[in-house]
Structure formats: C-alpha cells, structure tokens
Design brief:
Layout lengths: L1 E4 L4 H10 L9 H8 L4 E10 L4 E11 L12 E5 L3 E2 L3 H21 L2 E5 L8 H6 L3 E3 L3 E5 L4 H7 L2 H12 L3 E5 L4 H15 L7 H10 L5 E8 L2 E11 L2 E9 L8 H15 L4 E3 L11 H7 L4 E3 L3 E5 L2 H17 L1
Parallel strand pairs: 4-6, 12-13
Antiparallel strand pairs: 1-2, 2-3, 3-4, 3-5, 6-15, 7-15, 8-13, 8-14, 9-10, 10-11, 11-12
Helix pairs in contact: 2-8, 6-9
Length: 335
C-alpha cells in the first residue's frame, strides 16, 4: 500500500535524492529548510511511502511564493516544483507519482493560483500522467556546460566576444573573489538594482541569509563578487550538488558593465568547477524559444549544450490568475 506523508525521515529523504539518477539540490531537505526560513515562502514537502517496508517511492519538494504578506499576497501566490517530483523506476514509481501528485494538487489549490514544474531533465515519459491531471507543457530552454574537460578546451568553446570580454575584464583590473555573509548586503543591493531595471519582483533578503546559514556551511552554495578598485560591481550565487553547479542569482551594477564583470564571474566559476571536479554547469534557464530574451543571448555565447526540458503548468484558480496577470502588467508599468 502507498501512503502519502509530510513527515519524512531527513536521512532517508537525503539518501533518496542523492542516489536518484535525477537527484538535484531543489529536492533536498536543505533547500526545504532554506524555504522555511524565507519571508513569504512556504515549503510543501511530500513523499509517497510503501507501507510494507517504509521505502520512499517518490518525493516532491515545492515552495509557495508570495510577493507580499496578507490577503493581497494570495493574488501572487504560485507554487514552484523545481527538479521534481523524483520517483523510482518502473510501474510502481509511476503509480506512486500519480498518487503523490493527486494529493499535492488538493493542497496546492488552496494555497496557490498555479503550480509550475520546472524540469531539469527530459520528462517526456510522464507527459501523459501530468497532462491528464491538467498540467500543460510549454517549451523552456536552458544551457548546460560540460566541465569534464580541460580549461583550455572549455575556453575554446566560448564565442569570440566572450573570450574578448574575459580578457578585457582581466586587463582592466577586475577581480573575482568568493565572499562570506558580510558581503551579502552589498550583493543584495546590486541584485535589487538589476531586478528593478528588469521590472521584476525580488525575493526577500532572508532567502539569501538562509542560504548562507544552511547551504554554504555544507559546500552547497557560493557567493562570488567582482571587484574593481575595491568596489563591488557584480555578484553571482551558485548552488552545488553532487557533480553539478547551478547558476542561481546574478547581478551587476549598470555603471560598470563596460568592465565585463558578468563574463569574468561566469568564467571564474567554470574554472573553479573544473578544479573541484564538477562535471556540469547548469545555466538555470534561458526562456521560451519563441520569445526574445537577452539573458539567453548572454548564456548562449558561452558555448554550452542547448536543451529544451520545458515546464508544466496547472492553473488552480483561473479567476485569480487573470487578476494576477493584470496586476503584474501594472507592476511593470509602475516600475
């Protein structure tokens, strides 16, 4: 018999994710704790258990994100499942997945306007399962960098403009350093500037404080900052799990873009990744293929492998969804 629980044994959960062929940081107990400590974030942690032997058959780590607290926050509430659900192979795994998602949907429709599954691998095998539950698939791109090579070979894969940008940044005296929590306020200030320019809402600083408290001590995250004349001009937070580095949050000061700090930080992370035995650098998404996206152009020039694992979306409240979409358009106009 399969039973759904939200009380997982941490050790058992951690081992399940770590040993899974598609295990990733976004389905771990550590990221759940980060979400738990973040303002306006609410984690949803569920697992399908075989009651005969207490074996985990499937795990789902979601997070409900609101842009503000209180009643108005319900009109921005969305649930994100990144890199999940994870389930065992075979018919038993598919059965567990169905039961798990049905249980999750009952919870999510009370907490979020919609759910988005952000795939980190090819999920075509479960397309029918999710589609029958009302999840619609949409294309979404990403780039993966192969770090299982020498730095010289990796550099040769970069497009000419990126090679030139990295060389110019070094010639102009830009340095990249790995920083501790004391640099977080400066990073967040630059990040706020970047998000304001893009007219996008930004997570509360408590998200990044939790990353330093939970992930950094376990070598699961790093903060890199670019400096010019002792001034911080750009930053990037990466997440690390097994043999993968995930590009998570990046930012740069508009006044120093001519110094090419973004290119230099990415290259520094790639070099360090090779030195430390990582195999893949995951650029963390590159938008929809049919829509222009400047960030995609930046990432593409590093010569990574393009993938289209896509996303699934299920709207739980069509009325609130329409209100939220109008509200976001107004937000962008005001910003």
């Amino acid at each position: 018999m399969i039973e759904i629980t939200n009380h997982l044994d941490i050790k058992q959960w951690s081992e399940f994710v770590h040993s899974h062929s598609h295990g990733n940081i976004f389905q771990t107990p550590e990221i759940a704790e980060v979400y738990k400590r973040t303002k306006n974030y609410e984690p949803i942690t569920l697992a399908a258990i075989d009651t005969k032997n207490d074996e985990i058959l499937a795990v789902l780590q979601a997070v409900v994100i609101k842009e503000m607290s209180g009643f108005l926050g319900t009109f921005s509430a969305r649930s994100i499942i990144q890199g999940g659900p994870l389930f065992i192979d075979g018919e038993k795994g598919i059965k567990a997945l169905k039961i798990l998602m049905e249980y999750y949907n009952k919870i999510a429709r009370k907490k979020a306007i919609y759910t988005q599954l952000r795939n980190t691998w090819d999920t075509s095998a479960i397309y029918d399962v999710l589609n029958k539950m009302g999840y619609e698939y949409e294309e979404h791109l990403n780039f993966l960098m192969d770090l299982n090579c020498s730095k010289e070979i990796l550099f040769s894969k970069l497009k000419r403009d990126k090679k030139r940008a990295i060389k110019k940044a070094k010639e102009r005296g830009v340095k990249v350093v790995k920083e501790d929590k004391t640099a977080l306020p400066i990073f967040y200030e630059i990040l706020q500037e970047t998000y304001d320019k893009a007219k996008l809402p930004l997570a509360d600083i408590s998200l990044f404080e939790a990353v330093f408290d939970i992930l950094v001590p376990n070598n699961m995250a790093n903060l890199y900052m670019a400096k010019y004349n002792n001034t911080y001009i750009a930053g990037r937070i990466t997440l690390n799990y097994r043999n993968v580095i995930y590009d998570w949050f990046g930012c740069s000061s508009q006044d120093y873009l001519s110094m090419y700090p973004n290119e230099l930080i990415v290259w520094h992370v790639l070099e360090e990744g090779i030195d430390n035995g990582y195999k893949v650098f995951d650029f963390g998404g590159a938008g929809k293929p049919d829509k222009e996206y400047g960030v995609r152009d930046f990432k593409k020039r590093f010569g990574g492998k393009p993938v289209n694992y896509g996303r699934y979306c299920k709207v739980h409240s069509p009325t609130k969804m329409k209100i939220a979409e109008k509200g976001f358009k107004l937000y962008k106009r005001i910003k």
